[in-house]
Automatic annotation (TrEMBL):
GO terms for molecular function: metal ion binding; metallopeptidase activity. The lineage of its organism: Archaea, Methanobacteriati, Methanobacteriota, Stenosarchaea group, Halobacteria. The keyword Zinc applies. It is an enzyme of class 3 (hydrolase). Its EC number is 3.4.19.15. Residues 2-135 form the MPN domain. This is Desampylase. One of its GO terms (biological process) is proteolysis. Keywords: Hydrolase, Metal-binding, Metalloprotease, Protease, Zinc. Residues 78-97 are annotated as: Disordered. Pfam families: Prok-JAB. The keyword Hydrolase applies.
């Protein structure tokens, strides 16, 4: 299960809207575990060659974000990105690029209305997890 603070959820949705037809991405921070809790969402620049259909976090910005999370006493819960035109689930490319087993990969899809779903990477496949937005 992934519990996400309303503020972090809103940040992801707003970043997605601001990204327009390009995917946005970032790091989920908080408390990692079987029932992870996200308190913050840190956007990281998407430097993919085709940001309309792919995301690639800027490596230096991602490392700086990971350091910032650790310095704040938080843990990396996982990662997020948007699918501006759907689908609201991980793609084959998402599975090929997933590298943090046991961590959450949230996707915010905008096919008609914002939808945020999350999947745990199990090392060889994604497993859907329940998402709870906490006020």
């Amino acid at each position: 299960m992934l519990t996400i603070a309303r503020r972090a959820y809103d940040d992801i949705v707003h970043q997605g809207y601001e990204g327009g037809d390009e995917e946005v991405c970032g790091v989920l921070a908080g408390k990692h575990g079987d029932e992870s809790r996200v308190s913050d969402a840190f956007g990281v620049e998407n430097v993919a060659e085709t940001p309309q259909i792919r995301y690639a976090m800027d490596p230096e910005a991602q490392l700086a974000t990971l350091d910032r999370i650790e310095d704040a006493g938080m843990e990396v819960v996982g990662f997020y990105h948007s699918h501006p035109t759907g689908p609201p689930r991980p793609s084959e490319t998402d599975a090929e690029r997933a590298t943090w087993p046991g961590h959450s990969y949230a996707i915010c899809a905008f096919d008609g209305y914002p939808y945020l779903g999350s999947w745990r990477w199990r090392g060889d496949e994604f497993e859907r997890e329940t998402v709870v937005v906490e006020e």
